[in-house]
């Protein structure tokens, strides 16, 4: 089929150019200042004075409370920044953060300490910490997935930790150790035995999926590469986790879920329903879909002999069925609404980040002809004698691993939010009880640390994509020395348990796509869509502008 539509050439706005072309604090500050230059100078001067004295006060008297980030509005403080969100928030964070000095942001409805810098991050997230994760988790479980209040309360109150033995002094009912139950579930889901079932199943579904599209050996125009990818991957993930029933019972689940996922940033605010009823309706439709699936799985299992297998046609992955025992052990805490919230949360976890991240992997490789060729050569070294791919070799290929890591460095903005359990010192800084603490991968991933020069003397600044960034001079993949600097999956006790599967999902999808299809970007040479920072804090960022491409089946 000939390419019929004129290629879409997105306009890069000046604000976007500011963001993507440089990460220096001074340039970011230009973006958030008023236009008039005299007022810029006055306001900047006042802000500097206020910040200096606030800093001096906190440092000078021996008390070491984190200084407040500067702002223009005495009463509202940083409220405007947070109300605007998006690029304003991202740029303000980058401008105001200080390496290894916590900084306080506050305004209407929020008050938190932003912690940045390798030393503080490591101490905050990896030491047996005084920072609590449960409160944020409980709140998000309620807001994003509509978990019943009693489940959120039980999550927030679970002070037993994730270990086999509950923390001393914790009296949580053994079956209601909800945080540990989640760890048990994901350990089981991504155990070797389970992955040996899941990874080949996912690969098989990807290979099947490529025939579902009306794409032949002549070029077909793709008006939006991201949407194509979303359609491609979503079903494969769903069927690999929940089995075919989920799709058969809910033919519109992909559409519903896409709408719901688009509303996640709104739902996370906790704002009332009347402000965006569609967000709540799409969530309700997704919850109804997972309930339908669960009712059918229960119906199909009735009267059947209990068998512990890694795959069950009614339940999908064995671990999903085994999780029912954890629900049962809560002794009535988990009813139909609670299990639906958990099923929806699981579905969201294995799709919402991986799909945009895979888009960026494909896009960044396709936009560089030389890299594309080297990636294809690398893939050919992972083939078995019969032409099929060896998935272990793919996952361990140095160039592909490095490109994958660089995608997560440049295109994620994950936020780790914690609550201080008891007043303590983080280095020399006092963190008060109940204070909220926030860490952002976006900040750490744009640190000047990442400005690198390669052996040929070419600069690779932090804001540029460089596929080889994670390769040693010997050509091996390495994350050595990057703990606390590179954290797309967070760090410490609550580090993402799905990270290994996410890597599989991303790399296997890339492999199947470039093996089965020829794909060419229609966008101008060197152009890249902006990261959509309206999802700042939720992990992988979506592309802000559409990317047109053309595609055809390989002969
Ligand atoms: C590119 C893909 C992904 C990214 C960037 C990502 C990012 C993250 C980050 C930053 C955290 C830590 C949050 C914190 O410490 O507060 C996290 C936690 C989590 N992730 Fe992921 N994730 C990805 C894929 C996945 C997948 C595929 C799954 C499951 C199938 C998953 C399940 C989870 C769960 C359950 C947690 C909470 C861990 C806990 O409770 O301790 N994620 N993820």
Automatic annotation (TrEMBL):
Q: GO molecular function, one example?
A: steroid hydroxylase activity
Origin species, per record, is Karstenula rhodostoma CBS 690.94
Read off the Gene3D superfamilies from this record.
Cytochrome P450
User: Which sites bind heme?
Assistant: 496
Q: Name one Pfam family in it.
A: p450
Q: Which family does it belong to?
A: Belongs to the cytochrome P450 family.
**Chaperone: is it a keyword of this entry?**
no
What cofactor is needed?
A: heme
Q: Does the keyword Repressor apply?
A: no
Kindly state which keywords UniProt assigns to this record, in alphabetical order: Heme, Iron, Membrane, Metal-binding, Transmembrane, Transmembrane helix
Q: What is this protein called?
A: Cytochrome P450
Q: Where are the transmembrane segments?
A: 37-55
């Amino acid at each position: 089929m000939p390419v019929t539509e004129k290629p879409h050439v997105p306009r890069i706005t000046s604000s976007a150019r500011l963001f993507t072309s440089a990460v220096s604090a001074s340039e970011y500050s230009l973006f958030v200042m008023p236009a008039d230059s005299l007022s810029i100078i006055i306001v900047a001067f006042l802000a500097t004075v206020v910040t200096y004295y606030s800093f001096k006060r906190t440092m000078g008297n021996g008390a070491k409370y984190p200084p407040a980030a500067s702002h223009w509005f005495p009463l509202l403080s940083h409220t405007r920044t947070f109300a605007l969100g998006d690029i304003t928030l991202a740029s303000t964070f980058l401008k105001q953060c200080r390496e290894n000095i916590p900084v306080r942001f506050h305004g209407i409805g929020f008050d938190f300490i932003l912690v940045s810098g390798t030393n503080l991050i490591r101490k905050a997230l990896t030491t047996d910490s005084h920072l609590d994760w449960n409160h944020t988790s409980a709140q998000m479980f309620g807001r994003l997935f509509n978990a019943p209040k009693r489940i959120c309360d039980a999550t927030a109150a679970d002070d037993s930790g994730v270990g086999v033995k509950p923390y001393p002094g914790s009296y949580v009912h053994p079956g209601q150790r909800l945080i540990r139950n989640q760890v048990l579930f994901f350990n089981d889901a991504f155990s070797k035995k389970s992955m040996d079932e899941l990874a080949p199943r996912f690969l098989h579904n990807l290979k099947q999926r490529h025939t579902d599209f009306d794409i032949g050996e002549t070029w077909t125009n793709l008006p939006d590469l991201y949407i194509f990818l979303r359609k491609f991957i979503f079903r494969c993930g769903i069927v690999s986790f929940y089995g075919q029933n989920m799709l058969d019972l809910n033919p519109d689940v992909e559409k519903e879920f896409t709408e719901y996922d688009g509303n996640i940033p709104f739902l996370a605010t906790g704002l009332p329903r009347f402000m965006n009823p569609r967000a709540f309706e799409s969530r309700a439709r997704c919850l109804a879909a997972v309930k339908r699936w669960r009712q059918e799985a229960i119906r199909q299992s009735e009267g059947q002999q209990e068998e512990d297998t890694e795959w069950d046609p009614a339940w999908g992955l064995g671990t999903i069925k085994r999780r029912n025992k954890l629900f049962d052990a809560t002794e009535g805490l988990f009813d139909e609404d609670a299990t639906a919230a958990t099923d929806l949360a699981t579905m969201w976890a294995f799709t919402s980040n991986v799909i945009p991240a895979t888009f960026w992997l494909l896009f960044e490789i396709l936009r560089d002809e030389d890299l594309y060729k080297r990636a294809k050569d690398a893939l050919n070294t992972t083939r078995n004698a019969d032409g099929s791919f060896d998935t272990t070799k793919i996952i361990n290929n140095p160039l592909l691993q490095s490109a994958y890591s660089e995608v997560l460095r440049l295109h994620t903005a994950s936020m780790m939010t914690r609550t201080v359990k008891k007043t303590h010192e983080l280095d020399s800084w006092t963190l008060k009880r109940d204070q909220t603490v926030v860490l952002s991968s976006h900040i750490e991933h744009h640190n000047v640390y990442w400005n690198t020069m390669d052996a040929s003397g070419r600069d690779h600044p932090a804001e540029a994509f460089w596929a080889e960034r994670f390769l040693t001079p010997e050509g091996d993949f390495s994350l050595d020395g990057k703990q606390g600097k590179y954290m797309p999956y967070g760090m410490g006790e609550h580090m993402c348990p799905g990270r290994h599967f996410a890597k599989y999902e991303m790399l296997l999808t890339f492999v199947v796509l470039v093996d089965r299809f020829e794909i060419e970007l229609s966008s101008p040479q060197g152009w890249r869509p902006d990261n959509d920072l309206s999802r700042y804090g939720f992990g992988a960022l979506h592309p802000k502008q559409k990317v047109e491409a053309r595609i055809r089946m390989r002969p």
